[in-house]
Specification:
This protein is of the alpha/beta class. Helix content is 40%, strand content 24%. It has 18 helices and 16 strands. A hairpin with a 2-residue loop joins strand 2 and strand 3. The relative contact order is 0.15.
């Protein structure tokens, strides 16, 4: 017995021979997908890995590790090699009106209130229906997916039709329970909007890719009584609140005249501000109001293209960041932007921050990428689930090719991502590990029909 024990000790303390190495080799782990990329921008932490791989199984990220180690450790059903790509988290569009893709370019070159009151609202009253919302949302999802957007925060009517369209695409969405005081073809009053939206939320409760938020349109279209109901519902159901605020100077001035305080101060008085509140635009905010947003932990959806196209102004994004406000990026609807393109929003946000402050370091490319990914996810309450390439999170991923001559040379791939590449450089997109864009082609047949 002693001799056997000594033999075992000697065996395991002796350097293994080639034959013993083969005997001791661990069997590779079976997984669904292995993506190897030239660069991987994790976002959280703010690290760019070179020649690494992301292991994905059952829709979630298992690991990030060097490519040679990944090939020996994992046996993947599917292996994707992206030699000249940067792999990033799927982009999060923090504010849009997806179905308005069907109104793209119909009322250009107008200020906000004229655009809304004389063109958009009359058109919606005449044409918006469940079929309109379904088709417009389907078109918007196709455009967003092709541009690397894997999740969007919507505010529009007929959320049941939007949910049906989103489900066909495999995309992730937070659908707004839109609330207004005046009637539309969808609902008669604020209570009707809320009741219909909550019923759709209940019907979609088993869809893991579709969430909901409460979406009062704006302080100038929603009463105190309705805002109080929305606050109670948000607390009871743990839902974010998504609302336009301080988009134009006229809105702020009118708010002071009607309520003797700024719209954002009114919302704070009514108890709406907090970590679950997403203020859209936030262009005209003074220091006191910015401090209020920061102290309550509220988020801002920055929509630079829409702000410029409607001549609304320049949001104080740099000061927001200095105060620690969580700022994500949104496209707004295609009627007030004309593109659902977060690559364009990243670049414009970075350039505007520099130009309005005179500080070339005001908004670096890495921060612009974070605004388009993790910050948006945090605002939606999804920071634990998406927004970064982190083990344990859902595999919402976007591959961007930097192979073209316009991207040569490449000193910093994240800088190229923001300042050189565009949505046309997106080649692959995955949502919860499922491929939605493959070599720039939509996987969904119905969406492909839209392109043709």
């Amino acid at each position: 017995a002693l001799l056997v024990e000594l033999s075992v000790i000697c065996y395991f303390n002796t350097p293994p021979t080639p034959s013993r190495r083969r005997f001791m080799t661990t069997t590779p782990e079976n997984i669904d997908l292995l993506i190897e990329a030239r660069w991987i921008a994790a976002v959280d932490p703010d690290v760019v890995y070179t020649n690494h791989a992301v292991a994905v199984h059952e829709g979630r990220i298992l690991n990030i590790l060097p490519g040679n180690q990944a090939r020996s450790r994992y046996q993947a059903k599917e292996r994707i090699t992206l030699d000249e790509h940067i792999l990033i988290p799927g982009l999060v569009n923090l504010h849009t009106h997806a179905a308005m893709s069907l109104m793209r370019g119909m009322a250009d070159d107008l200020p906000l209130m004229e655009w809304l009151q004389k063109h958009i609202w009359p058109t919606e009253a005449e044409h918006v229906s469940a079929q309109f919302v379904h088709d417009g949302t389907l078109l918007a999802c196709a455009e967003m997916l092709k541009g690397g957007i894997t999740c969007f925060n919507d505010m529009y009517f007929y959320p049941e039709a939007a949910a049906a369209a989103v489900s066909k695409t495999g995309m992730r969405a937070t659908l707004g329970i839109t609330t207004l005081e005046f009637p539309t073809p969808y609902a008669s009053d604020a209570d009707d909007y809320l009741n219909k939206g909550l019923a759709v939320r209940e019907a979609c409760r088993n869809n893991p890719l579709i969430g909901f938020c409460l979406a009062p349109h704006a302080p100038y279209t929603v009463s105190d009584n309705s805002f109080e109901k929305i606050r109670i519902l948000a607390e009871q159901l743990n839902l974010p609140i998504h609302c336009h605020i301080h988009e134009t100077r006229q809105e702020v001035d009118d708010g002071h005249k009607q309520h003797q305080q700024a719209p954002i101060e009114r919302l704070h008085r009514l108890g709406l501000l907090g970590p679950g509140f997403i203020g859209v635009h936030g262009v005209h905010l003074n220091e006191r109001e910015l401090q209020l947003i920061a102290s309550t932990g509220s988020s801002i959806a920055h929509c630079p293209t829409s702000n410029l196209k409607l001549a609304s102004g320049f949001a104080p994004v740099v000061r927001m960041r200095q105060l620690g406000i969580n700022v994500g990026l949104g496209t707004d609807g295609a009627a007030s932007n004309n593109r659902l393109d977060l690559f364009g929003e990243m670049r414009l946000a970075a350039l505007l921050a520099k130009g309005t402050t005179g500080n070339a370091a005001a908004l670096p490319a890495h921060e612009a990428l974070r605004m388009a990914t993790l910050n948006g996810a945090i605002a939606l309450g999804l920071g634990h689930e998406i927004g970064s390439i982190t083990p344990g999170k859902a595999a919402d991923l976007c591959a961007v090719s930097l192979a073209s001559l316009e991207n040569r040379p490449c000193f910093d791939p994240v800088s190229h991502l923001v300042h050189v590449a565009g949505r046309e450089s997106v080649t692959h997109v995955w949502v919860a590990g499922k491929c939605c864009i493959d070599h720039k082609t939509l996987r969904n047949t119905e969406q492909n029909d839209l392109e043709s």
